[in-house]
Design a protein that fits this description.
about 475 residues, Rossmann fold, Alpha-D-Glucose-1,6-Bisphosphate, Chain A, domain 4
Length: about 475
């Protein structure tokens, strides 16, 4: 499987295992999957679908390849996706695979598609035109805890009791619950030979986006939302509004909204001949929303849209490594002794961010987060999946958990927009005379003159930001002891 670290892939792996399949997972950085509950039940190999040789090695000896990859964050996403799909198609022929399974986007029969939707269609066409049978499932809005589409819908509805909306909110959409998407994906591995085609997949309801917002409000117990459509909001302007109001950044909001400019409803329901509906039927919109909100309330969101990282080459050494010797690096180092136990200090460290905040000058973090969102970055709104436990590879506000040694070390890599690359390392160890030694290290590797100027500009605020963080983290641990 390619894309196991993403939203769909991370949920599909355990379902495939439960169905009795042996699963090989391909990852550019296998360490990112170290905390997944299914880690010990699958074979994990290092590979990159953009590299033809590693793709051939990854699929060697396999029967079915799942392709759940999409280059949303790259400016040249279409070329990258085209290359990756071509690599897999060629590798599948060499390895003698029975089938490629791809999850694409539901789209109308027109040449006037958005760039991202056109790219997803192109990837599906590459697989269908290749020598290996391909099952291309095409879905519109996927409803599930942690999906980008659901998070956009949830935050728009909850935060805006009245909103001015573009005309596309009256286009018809056929959403589908993540549970039904996974059921179709698992079944696709066992389809009869000779199936080389697309299948439209959707739930039982066809709704406009306005109806989805109003029905969501009913399920969530919110007052009726007031919607005032106007003709002047383009998809791009709509995406900027989503970028400011919801946790979904502009780079993801743009393709999501661009796909909704068209009516996205199923043109056929042929998949039901191969995968009959369960006795209770496919989940209706209200059922899917209720299940998603229940999982969010119980902190049982197994994967999120933000699990797929922003561009980063895991093969490059990190400037946060102790033996780094790759050029200029700025560092802010803080150490404090705490009377609390290492376990108590670690509990505060692992709970950092999200609803708990960053223990330092909240206004500065909020302003910096807004500035990042306005410039097209991820900002602080991504939050965290679980308020108390972190996992390698997951998003934490504008950071990514690059490494975690539970109980002793947390390494975060910055994903906000910066003229360089930055890390934040938080370490906990027993004190020499009891208590705890807390160590905090901020590392910045500048890019060009702008990077050096940036560090010099913010350096005067480090005592307040980083010094305050160290004092407040140890203080919080002591108050809880």
């Amino acid at each position: 499987m390619f894309g196991a670290s993403g939203y769909i892939g991370g949920r599909l792996v355990p379902d495939l295992l439960e169905a009795g399949h042996q699963v090989r997972v391909v990852a550019r950085n296998p360490a990112k999957l170290g905390d997944r509950p299914w880690h010990d039940d699958v074979e994990i190999v290092r590979g990159d679908v953009l590299d033809a040789d590693s793709t051939e090695q990854a699929v060697d000896g396999q029967q079915v390849a799942y392709y759940l990859v999409h280059s949303l964050h790259s400016n040249d996403f279409a070329a990258r996706d085209r290359q990756a799909a071509g690599n897999l198609s060629s590798a599948a022929e060499s390895a003698g695979l029975r089938r490629i399974v791809y999850l694409g986007g539901l789209h109308p029969d027109t040449d006037e598609l958005s760039p991202h939707l056109a790219s997803r269609k192109e990837v599906g066409d590459i697989f269908l035109d290749g020598p290996t049978d391909a099952v291309v499932l095409q879905a519109a809005v996927i409803l599930g805890s942690g999906s980008a589409s659901f998070e956009m819908l949830r935050h728009l509805t909850e935060r805006l009791p009245a909103m001015v909306t573009p005309q596309w909110v009256h286009n018809r959409i056929q959403p589908i619950a993540i549970r039904d998407v996974l059921r179709y994906l698992v079944a696709a591995a066992s389809f009869p030979a000779g199936q080389n085609r697309t299948f439209d997949i959707g739930g039982p309801d066809v709704l406009t986006y306005v109806e989805m917002m109003r029905r969501y409000a009913v399920v969530a117990g919110l007052p009726r939302r007031i919607v005032l459509p106007v003709p002047v909001l383009t998809p791009w302007l709509s995406a900027q509004w989503v970028n400011l109001v919801t946790p979904v950044p502009g780079s993801i909001a743009v393709p999501l909204i661009a796909s909704l400019v068209h009516e996205v409803i199923c043109q056929e329901d042929d998949i039901c001949e191969l995968v009959p509906d369960p006795p209770q039927g496919r989940l209706h919109f209200e059922q899917a929303v209720e299940l998603a909100l229940t999982r969010i309330g119980q902190y049982r969101v197994t994967t999120r849209w933000s699990d797929a990282g922003w561009p980063h080459d895991p093969s490059q050494p990190s400037a946060a490594d102790p033996d780094w010797a790759g050029g200029t690096v700025y560092e802010d180092l803080r150490e404090r002794h705490s009377t609390a136990s290492p376990e108590q200090v670690w509990q505060v460290v692992e709970g950092i961010g999200g609803e708990h905040g960053w223990y330092s000058f909240p206004l500065a973090w909020v302003v910096r987060g807004w500035a990042d969102r306005v410039s097209g970055g991820v900002g602080l709104r991504r939050g965290r999946r679980d308020p108390y436990r972190l996992h390698t590879g997951e998003a934490l506000d504008w950071w990514r958990v690059e490494d975690i040694e539970r109980g002793s070390r947390l390494l975060l890599r910055a994903e906000m927009r910066l003229p360089g690359r930055a890390w934040l390392e938080l370490s906990v160890s027993p004190g020499v005379h009891g208590g705890t030694c807390y160590r905090q290290r901020a590392v910045f590797r500048p890019h060009g003159f702008a990077g050096h100027a940036y560090w010099k500009l913010i350096a005067p605020f480090h005592d307040v930001v980083f010094g305050g963080m160290a004092a407040n983290i140890t203080g919080a641990a002591e108050r809880a002891s």
